[in-house]
Amino acid sequence: MASGLFILVLPAATVIPVGDALIVLRSDGPKAAAYGMHGATAAVMLVIGTLLLIG
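Above: the chain's sequence. Below: its structure in token form.
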């Protein structure tokens, strides 16, 4: 039961690095940090969460 809930939490947590990227962009921070660090983290989390859901 707990592992099933964890699988649903990971894709939902993808919103956090997306929000961080938006904060960096809105505060005129470096675009490389926004896309490279936060965007890549969100993409990896989304892929892993999706693979866990379909696997």
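Residues 9 and 49 are 8 Å apart (CA to CA).
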